Fold each of these.
Amino acid sequence: MAPIDFRLQINGLAIRVQESLGLNPLSEHLHVFTNRRYNRIKILMWARNGFVWWQKRLERDRFHWPRGESATVSMTGQELNWLLDGFDLRQRRPHARLAYQYVV
């Protein structure tokens, strides 16, 4: 899937899922998006009576985003956790762990 404009919020992401991908944003599937630099991920999910929206921002490194010809990729929960932990699913190697003492 191609990177998205990260200014999109919940409604914009839901519309993108529905119109661009042809999927139902009200299903209980997780819809995962990245930005152009592959250092941020947004996850959108419908949970019974409203949307849940998660976001992760890397301070260093990039996510090893699955590449392919399809606009969508199916993965297991474990593979999603690996992606969020920084594993390259092809090389099985995570990002380095950062140990900051305070927020700047």
Amino acid sequence: MVSGPDGSNSDTHEPPGEMIAVSLWRGQGSSGGLVRYDVPVRDNQTILDIVTHIQRNIDSTLSYRFACRVGMCGSCAMTVNGVPRWTCRTHAGQFTKNGRLTVEPLRNMPIIKDLVADMAPFFDKWQKAEGRFQGKDSRTDDVEPVRPDSPERKTADAGIECINCAICYAACDVVAWNPDYLGPAALNRAWTLMNDIRDTAGGERLRAVSAGDGCHNCHSHQSCMTFCPNDLNPTAAIAGLKRMAVRAVLKGEL
């Protein structure tokens, strides 16, 4: 059901039973607001199940993203009661308070429509942080071996499970204050590449991430680590970049 202006509910032919009052952000760009929908409680239902129910049974104009539904792609990330989450892995019972739930798009990015955030600024930061591998070998050369027990490989391993869901970016207060800040995901990616012995762009990358809107802007609030669904620690990666940049300055390389 959806509440009308007079507080009445439209009939969606759902059987009577326990309901959740779900407030969804609706609108385009910066204009919009929360709209209430009454959704029936189901066993083991996730936030994504609730949003899908609304789109399929109540209002087909609702826009949102999802793909894998099993916590692999990260495309279903939204803000649930003020917390950025993968909605496919978040059970409604964990977040419903007094029969109420609020779902909004990820913050720190423009809103395209309803629950769909524009990811372009997020990925632009990856480019600015030189977050792409650059090697010296061609496709005809033998693959350079990397020892799995080497310190560099272990350091890189700690950050390579990022799936670009942008939850850390949405959770970052520094991004909220400074939209030009590169953000935890892009800097975490740069850190993994700085520890890849096959990569040849370390100097260029370090200059990019230590510039005005780079790693030195991080206040170490650790929101990125707190909310990362894959239990990564971008704050530690950013601290590593800070140390690396200071060493480069002392050596006259920056």
Amino acid sequence: MSELIQEWVLERNGYTCQMCGVAAGEPDPLGSARSVRLTMGHIKDKSKGGDDTPQNLRAVCTNCNEGLQNAALPKPDRIHLLAQVRRATIDDQEALLSWLLGKFGLVSKKKP
């Protein structure tokens, strides 16, 4: 698969593992001294007829791709996700907002 396809998939997936949710460059959750690295994973394995098209690819960390993590965390539903954000500190909420604005290319509107 081409580097262009890989870059497109990584961008689409927000440079985040679609199995466990870690982001590229974060500390490895399994405790090693290395940072998280992302690779391409097939949604439908090539051995079962899958291909290398962007629709069949997703960003996965090396731990998930190698099967080192026992189970992927379930994706949070909207209610759970909003509850977690509300519980976060103001600094963490602002960091999340900044990340979301950057991810979607938006500009914050400040209230007077």
Amino acid sequence: MARSIPLKITYLFLAWLLMVSYQIFTQTALTTVASSVGSSAPLLASWINSNANVPIFICSFAWMFVLSSLISIFMFGKERRLTVQFLVSLALTLTGSALLGLFHLVGLDLSNPIFLSQPSNMLFGNVFFAFFYLALPFIFMVAVDLGLMKIKK
């Protein structure tokens, strides 16, 4: 039992780290994707640029949903409850937002791509990586569902 507590804390920390990093880089990835489709689909690029909050919310929500679902499975197994999953999601979201806010207060604006310009521009300037990054939570959902369907058969 005592050995499982550090493992559960590790799961929570990894989920939190993935969620916070996804929130930091989603805007940059979306900008790259929008600019790459600008020549072939200018209406879509215009919509993405003018309504960036919608796809950012959808992608961030999808990632938070995947992570909180998996964390509750790993931590609580078959005994998980909807209330517990909600509390895990809430804790991940609140601590992520609070830490980003604290970093911003001390002068580290991690949500600003200029702060991390060199590494993030190299990665997220590549349209294929940016698209993969935005699609990652959805790919993960499909992979987990296919794996669970395979196990049930």
